[in-house]
User: Fold this.
Amino acid sequence: MSIHKILSILLEYPTEEMRRHHFEIRRRAAADLDDAGLKRIDAFLSYAGSIDLIDLQAEYVQTFDQTPEHSLHLTHHVFGEDKARGPALIDLSELYRRHGLEIGTNELPDYLPLILEFTDQIPAAEACRFLADAGKVLEVLTANLERSGSPWANLLHVVVSLCGDAAPLVCGEVGAGEPAACVAPCGGEIQ
Assistant:
């Protein structure tokens, strides 16, 4: 399990299963992260294990579902509720489908845990370039969470640091047969 998959799991709605496996999650994260990243994972896991699950779940809903500037739906930060968001979501869905990632009908393709699941399935260099396209949005989201004192800010710091200063995608680089324009995780096409 790569750090992309680990972060995807940790950024999902908290479950008892996630909490039961926190030692395994930490062990696997240690294989992929430097000390600074691992300290952030440890801080989140420590917090998540220190409060009742129902309270953690309520905090998750308050943080991500009821506070728009904390939304894990990345196109929301670019388009808000504008109808231009629709084509961006369709483009992401089609990209996932071309790479064999089937998404449920109850989830939007710009949901950060789903994006991390996708980047877990493509080569590391491509994953970094794909995430680099969302870099500005991820940095703003991280800063918003940090300002609010959210424990999930630790996880977003790790997401932002995953690829360092990777360059954004160049058209056609995500797998063979891609169209002339690339799909950005925050919506729209990269020309």
Remarks:
- Residues 3-190 form one domain.
- The chain has one domain: 3-190.
- Residues 27 and 113 are 20 Å apart (CA to CA).
